[in-house]
């Protein structure tokens, strides 16, 4: 037998048999003795096990030893003693015992209390050291050294400089003794009543700011006056980073420790921004009241402390260029007054003002105009405001907030064409000087205003605007949101909706799929009957919620079309702006589709009136001139819609910050858009818009005059340029209470102002210059579209003899009367003298929602407005709310409105 096959001699009483006996004994509750106790030769194996890293325990067999080795961790099966189940101690003691050597499982990863304590001590020690270093490195800011700022430079579209503005910060530092005690008390009472007792730091405010920044929000300012002073003094630092917030914290700590409270308050009031380019209390006193700071009374001081909440929303002049919806003069004045009164109440509560003095100031103090920078006079101020508004309202794309823009240092390249801007201003002034004479006709020609805008159809670039007489004197940009209703210039959206979606099947339900509708040709026939009873799509007479019927009047109370049915095709109805035909067409298509058509073309939903009444099709909405020009540009571009924009590029010292990218969507097919254009060409060639003809060029456009002759429009375009011109009367004096749009009967020496008169004259004069040198391009020749609906009128579509004009005479204005009243339809038999009975309504209502409304406009059609009961009240102080249905908010501008 080979040597390696020979079995070793088994000792007596030991060996495997003994091991088996020991195991058997274990199973019966007796522990087997270690093999080492027998004195057998297996001791040599046990010794080997210790030499190889074991714990000196024995094993019942080689197989058991092997299994124990496979389990690892230094443990052996059958081990005993206090070390059982634990790893062998390391040869060397570790400084950081983690993971813990003497624990198994999850306990191995649980740090000991000594370890945790050590970490905390090390962390807080390093924080203290860092704070000490940070405190030593920062210095107390000096307001005089941070009183300068960089300009923002604005450029014309050709790259030449328009104006540099923003760096001329209006700041004059005054001593603490020159700051009224009332101003000190107002600010402390409103912002930091424990100012003289606290340390100058608000840890919660700092944590909130850091957290907000970390989550991607706008960093918030400090909560104490000390922190706000430090933030203002560090305004030259444009970064919004964690390191900057930490630096602010250290500076605030140092200021609170080393600087006297009076000096901190002085620094804060001398560095705070009060709007209107005014930094510091002295500049603010001059900007708002034209007086020195030490002459301010308690009410004026409380007012200026309110302005510190944010000039955009507290300046009583408003900031509609930044927020046309939320920063109107009316809303700002209400906010400022509320905040001012709250400040005065707190001053009394904290013993800083006696009740008798407080009782003197219950209204806003008399304030002056907000512009003083002569570089922003004329149209420049409107252009700058428009560019600023575009940047700020699109901050998610531009990456520039209002605060960052205020800090300056940007080069802003606009879309404005210097020659076109000058030409548009010149055209307006020419008409104004020739026709508007407030000295001769104070009751007719006062408060006359114009607005205008030009948009490039190929890009959406705003190339020119006319915002008013002078941006330093007239503060509302008339090219943007004004609240002036657009009248019959809205009718192309009704036609586009009829061509795109079609009229509903009379046999179907109210909501029908597009393939169940009949798309309309411009040759379709509709009744041009005056006082036409408007029918629902199913043939029933339209009624309001009170069961009152609607009768639509035409301009001058005249019927159009061929008697006796007075049917007229849509091309001719557009050419002569026949109201009844388009009101009926709008109902047949569905006013929701008409609204969609307007929005698809580029109008903002917030500028549109409600669709509850048929008059929606006649332009009770109030979009801005910019949006109207951009919307018609969609037709000029064969249905391609591009949002108007005013900034091409923004750069700073580090390079390009923002570049505009034109986004195009197909609002209408070329078939629809080109057919609408072809119909609008007829308006200029042979209709109400003949004054807008340009020699050698094709022009498409539409006139518009509104209810009560309160506004007049002409919107037209060539393939290269789309322009909108508006005219209205609205008092420009903020001191006038309950301001309203005024009628224009007799204005300019004319019986009535139409879009066909002054607006179209301005349009033609300007466009002739604006397009000079450009090749005359034709519009695309449209292919036939849709079907001719009502080719054979049904008997139900013919007005009954009782509805004839002779039996229901019109009360519309006539040319023989210098100031005729708007036409008033006669109520039907079902109508009672109420909100829908115009003969019973007072002059404060602008037309109501009843049978046909009032004035039908001029030779260009006009509009029946449908305001809610709240409109008269809103229109009195905020013309931005005159959008026809009472839910408007002056958001017809370029950037206004929740949806915009």
TrEMBL record:
Residues 563-720 form the Penicillin-binding protein transpeptidase domain. The chain crosses the membrane at residues 115-138. GO terms for molecular function: glycosyltransferase activity. Its EC number is 2.4.-.-. The keyword Protease applies. It catalyses: [GlcNAc-(1->4)-Mur2Ac(oyl-L-Ala-gamma-D-Glu-L-Lys-D-Ala-D-Ala)](n)-di-trans,octa-cis-undecaprenyl diphosphate + beta-D-GlcNAc-(1->4)-Mur2Ac(oyl-L-Ala-gamma-D-Glu-L-Lys-D-Ala-D-Ala)-di-trans,octa-cis-undecaprenyl diphosphate = [GlcNAc-(1->4)-Mur2Ac(oyl-L-Ala-gamma-D-Glu-L-Lys-D-Ala-D-Ala)](n+1)-di-trans,octa-cis-undecaprenyl diphosphate + di-trans,octa-cis-undecaprenyl diphosphate + H(+); Preferential cleavage: (Ac)2-L-Lys-D-Ala-|-D-Ala. Also transpeptidation of peptidyl-alanyl moieties that are N-acyl substituents of D-alanine. It holds the Pfam family Transpeptidase. InterPro entries: Beta-lactam/transpept-like (IPR012338), Glyco_trans_51 (IPR001264), Glycosyltr_51/Transpeptidase (IPR050396), Lysozyme-like_dom_sf (IPR023346), PBP_transglycosylase (IPR036950), PCN-bd_Tpept (IPR001460). Residues 20-41, 792-802 have a biased composition (Low complexity). Residues 71-84, 846-861, 883-900 have a biased composition (Gly residues). Keywords: Carboxypeptidase, Glycosyltransferase, Hydrolase, Membrane, Multifunctional enzyme, Protease, Transferase, Transmembrane, Transmembrane helix. The keyword Protease applies. It is an enzyme of class 2 (transferase). This is Transglycosylase domain-containing protein. It comes from Streptomyces incanus.
